[in-house]
Amino acid sequence: MRFTPRSYQTIAKDFLKSTPRANLYADMGLGKTATILWLIEELDLDDVLIVAPKRVIENVWPQESELWDEFRGLNVHSIMGTDLERKRHLLSLPRVSCINYDNILWLMSHIEDWPFKTVICDESTRLKGFRTTQGTKRSQALAKVAHVKVQRWINLTGTPNPNGYGDLWGQQWFVDGGQAMGRSFSACLQRWFYMDPLRKGHYRKVHMLPGAQKEIDARLKPTTLAIRTADWFDLAKPIENVLYVDLPAPARREYARMERQFFAQLEGGVITAANAAVKSNKLLQLANGAVYHQDGRWSWVHDEKIEALRSVIEESGRANILLAYHYVSDVERLREVFPDAVEIREPGAVERWNKGEIPLLLAHPKSAGHGLNLQHGGNTIVFFGDDWNLEDHLQILERIGPARQKQSGYDRPVFVHHILARNTLDEVVARRRTSKASLMECLLEAMAEPA
To answer: Domain for residue 75, yes or no?
Structure first.
């Protein structure tokens, strides 16, 4: 198939061509992968390393290079498999190698002289925790070569700052070594942020100083381009629906006890929470209908959300539904009630879904949120439960989102159903997610080129 770039892909390619170390913030479904392959081919780059989540390495980059006639000669291969298979890959490197983030340390320990002149970090928010003196081991390993061996560095993501502007420092350091946002994270904090006073038993919230957002935007602009769907497509927004459920009296009683006293008494035994973070997780589990014990067992609490899902299925005319879950206990309960449900990690599940053969596809946002194309299988998503991670939420939503529907030729709306337990932490998470999204949208707007 011939590759015919869209105008925004040309803008992105030209920007990356003239900016060797850069961030490309492109909404999900706008063809970031094809744009990068086009850049590699046009600049005749070799010794390229693409770092991405495992599922994206397996299902996106090699397949995309084979999809377009112009890119089949790039020889894109993944450093995957057993230890021996990965070692064999290193004996004769192709023009473009792909590796998942978890194998970065393995790569660094098995390669004597870093050969990759170009590094592309797909879903670069994996680097947000980097610190010059600490942080994740994989980001620390990449930092050793980022400004010594690598000539061209590109960060790719559609959700650059899901938790605020502080998320940008680690990613930006790999682009410019700290020129835009400070040589260290502490320097960044001191210049543009302030923290709430430390209170016993509470996290210290970080806030931006007045004028900081505008100043950071101006500093990022030379090395950052944002391509937003809304600037290029006339898309209807997803049709969102919130279904509230009320906890039964026994469940409400134990929810209140956990909220106040950090424990709950269930038929399966006593559930305890060691600290506020654990308590938060237990409360979300209680809202969903099942709670884990310390030994890994879980106890049933209620089926209110399952009944709400049943109504969604009926009212949707039995349309195929993508369901986002967060706990294995929910999967086990759902599969008892809906025997036709299939987990996305099962062999062939993605292909069957896209053929319309799966009425209810169960997917955890962390395993299905990046890179997968699921828009062919349906246009309805249900969030059975949720957590605090905005990036995961946005990523799995866009697997069937408006941009992907439009680009695939489907003239149909996207339906998003949130099942929330009333007067629980579910509602707090939903409100917090909205506030984070508005802050990230401000960044993307500041980095965008005029259409």
So the answer is: yes
Report how far residue 414's alpha carbon sits from residue 239's, in angstroms, rounded to the nearest whole number: 6
Distance CA 270, CA 267 (A): 8
E strand intervals along 219-373: 224-227, 239-245, 263-266, 269-272, 290-292, 298-300, 321-324, 342-343, 360-363
Residue among 178, 239, 179 at smallest CA distance from 382: 239
Statement to judge: residues 131 and 237 lie in one domain = no
Answer yes or no: are the C-beta atoms of 74 and 3 closer than 8 Å. no
Helical segments of 241-275, H only: 249-261
| Shared-domain flag, residues 158 and 239 | no
Say if residue 240 is in the same domain as residue 160: no
**Structural domain span for residue 173:** 7-227
Task: Based on the fold, state whether residues 124 and 219 are members of the same structural domain.
Answer: yes
Residues 36 and 109 in one domain: yes
Q: 326 with 387: CB under 8 angstroms?
A: yes
The residue ranking higher by pLDDT, 135 or 119, is 119
Residue 369 is part of a domain; what is its CATH number? Answer: 3.40.50.300
Q: How much of the chain, in percent, has pLDDT values that exceed 70?
A: 93
Residue of 377, 344, 347, 346 lying closest to 361 (CA atoms): 344
> What pTM was computed for the model?
0.73
Task: Name the pLDDT band for 252 (thresholds 50, 70, 90).
Answer: very high
The pLDDT value given to residue 199: 60
Condensed to tens digits (0 to 9), the pLDDT of residues 288-346 reads 999 888 888 899 999 999 999 988 887 777 789 999 999 999 999 999 999 999 999 99
pLDDT at 162 over 90: no
Residues 147 and 239 grouped into a single domain = no
Q: HSE of 179 in the Cβ direction (CA atoms, 13 Å)?
A: 13
Cα distance between residue 63 and residue 138, in whole Å = 26
Do 217 and 348 lie in one domain? The reply is no
d(CA 416, CA 262): 33
